[in-house]
Write a structure and sequence with these properties.
Two copies of one chain form a homodimer. Chain A is of the alpha+beta class. In chain A, 31% of the residues lie in helices and 24% in strands. Chain A has helices at 24-38, 41-44, 78-91, 112-129, 184-193, 210-219, 233-245, 260-269, 288-299; strands spanning 50-54, 57-66, 72-73, 76-77, 96-107, 132-141, 149-158, 175-178, 223-227, 248-252, 283-286, 308-314, 321-324, 330-332. In chain A, the strands form three sheets. Chain A has a seven-stranded mixed beta sheet with strand order 9-11-8-12-10-13-14. In chain A, strands 2-7-5-6 form a four-stranded mixed beta sheet. A two-stranded antiparallel sheet of chain A has the order 3-4. The relative contact order of chain A is 0.16. Chains A and B meet through α1, β1, β2, α3 and β5 of A and α1, β1, β2, α3 and β5 of B. β1 of chain A pairs antiparallel with β2 of chain B, so a sheet runs across the interface.
Chain lengths: 345, 345
């Protein structure tokens, strides 16, 4: 990272309570860390809120807090996650994300240079995704009342006219597509936490999916549901869709792409990749007439090159997710009760 | 509070890690606590983001995280603060707040009924302010890595056509108005923390200011700056405005309304009310021709009944806030360095 601590921050190798106090120290943090990283006109107006031009019509609005542990992991950091997570939540309604907010809750004593790295990664992720961070807030809590740095982002996207995508819109006959290998993010985090060693490092798939969604919508608007299977993984997302759409979903387990080292890590830890979090994958539920074209377009994109059709929507067993297993049987895949991987995002 | 724990939550008197896991427990918390409290169509669609109709034009976008300690205090709670704080930030651009997001970071073991009380107070505050909480997120962190409950809200407001209000727009000759007594919120928190006893309980002024702003804008659009003096108080807000507008601000200390028990508490703790946080007050910087009409209209509103003209904007000493003191002298009121009251909001 090329960040060097600017003069007014140099007296503070770690965050102090006053950096969240709304006084001179807060102002210095904003002026010398946040503004240079996120630079844009709306942010620089430094009002209590940012004023933004928007076209008439509908917008998408979403929020997510990030408490991932560790803060830096192979393939990403809490900063990348905080930007991409909200970009993706907005993209899953079919909207084009444009503006983000960023709220930091920082623990007293947190390293100033780690914060700078996180902020720089947020800025890079925002630039890559084509969104602007236009408003923010920083609070500092006493040592022992946080865990380094928590970040909330909220985001605004512009909805294309006449487009309707939502978790209650799956229809019997629809095709279920996943955009690539599953479980990468969760197992990247777990292999760091558990110090697992494999031949290769498992990297998080953390990425902004808005460009992929845009490409998909160019070939067809018969996309009924989009969902990024984060916490709870593909299993939870499909269960929620089955419940909200009042349909059954039947998937073929052998069709679900899983990287071999992710598979090994899951076996070692007794986990099922279908429940493991992803941060750069989406599930699309698409009208059967559009499925081939959408799949082909996804595969032509870097973020969808390993996309697969993994199942279909059925009027049978409404509310339930059922899988054909590798050995020719079927099993019900329930919603998980709690959490197998705490603080994954 | 009339909240009774619904059946699916009854097995959990306290929050467990799984309530933030994106599985069944998360879904139960959403279905049985958040949805009944915040009920609206956008939230109930349960998508990754909410889709909202908006008119063409400009919108205001703002975010704030709340880490106040204690979570409940005379006159409010973190829930009221989280709603009113963001409503106010949006109102300070002259926009009409309409939608909020809510992101919870909850510590494992936090009381389910306290969470329910906070959520209910958020719902009441939102209803009172006329805004909807349309999207949300819940994360749970392990015991010892939080402090009960942190809340982030972000908000969207609709900007009236052609209106321009901002901290860089103060002009020499403008009049500085404060909407009522200052320091109430900060001293309400401090008197609980320090177990101070006065004849009356000092109550937070926590309130949504959008109705007051709307009334003010009805009588004049010659309002150049609006600011809610939260962290750092009136002193920090006026210093920031002086800096951003490149003007001087001269105030008359004897004109600033302070409640007598707030004054006493400040004396006892060695604090200056001008640096103490407010959560239901605003500063308006208004063209001299409009000042009397705006002041009269403020005084006709419950939230502005004690409004006062406290000073003027000058081309002298740009960037500085100067006060005439009670004994006839003048003093510079600088930006405070750090924080005199940590975790005040």
């Amino acid at each position: 990272m090329d960040w060097t601590c600017p003069l007014p921050l140099q007296d503070y190798p770690g965050i102090v309570i006053g950096h969240g106090g709304g006084g001179k120290l807060s102002a210095e943090l904003v002026e010398h860390m946040f503004l240079p990283a996120f630079r844009n006109d709306a942010l620089e107006s430094l009002g209590d809120s940012s004023v933004l031009a928007m076209p008439a019509g509908r917008l998408a609005f979403s929020t997510d807090s990030f408490v991932v542990k560790p803060l830096f992991f192979p393939g990403g950091s809490i900063g990348d996650l905080a930007v991409n997570g909200t970009v993706n939540d907005i993209s899953m309604s079919g909207a084009r994300p444009v503006y983000l907010s960023a709220g930091f809750i920082i623990e007293e004593g947190f390293s100033m240079s780690s914060l700078a790295q996180i902020v720089q990664r947020m800025a890079q992720a925002a630039e890559k995704a084509g969104v602007q961070i236009v408003t923010g807030d920083t609070k500092v809590v006493e040592k022992g009342h946080g865990d380094g740095c928590y970040i909330n982002t909220a985001g605004i996207g512009i909805m294309p006219h006449g487009l309707h995508i939502g978790p209650a819109l799956a229809q019997p006959g629809d095709v279920v597509i996943v955009s690539g290998t599953i479980g990468d993010h969760g197992m990247a985090i777990m292999s760091v936490r558990e110090s697992l060693e494999f031949e290769t490092t498992i990297e998080s798939d953390c990425a902004a999916l808005n460009s992929l969604v845009e490409a998909m919508l160019e070939v067809s608007r018969d996309i009924h549901v989009l969902r990024d299977p984060t916490r709870g993984g593909v299993a939870s997302s499909l269960n929620e869709i089955a419940g909200q759409s009042k349909v059954g979903i039947m998937i073929d387990e052998t069709k679900i792409p899983v990287k071999s080292d992710v598979h090994s890590a899951c076996e070692l830890l007794g986990m099922d990749p279908i429940y493991v979090a992803n941060e750069g994958k989406l599930i699309a539920i698409v009208a059967p007439s559009a499925a081939d074209a959408v799949l082909a377009r996804m595969r032509a994109q870097p973020l969808g090159s390993e996309a697969q059709i993994i199942g279909t929507v059925t009027s049978k067993h409404p509310g339930m997710l059922v899988a054909k297993t590798g050995i020719g049987g079927t099993r019900v895949i329930p919603m998980q009760i709690g959490e197998q991987l705490p603080r994954i995002c």
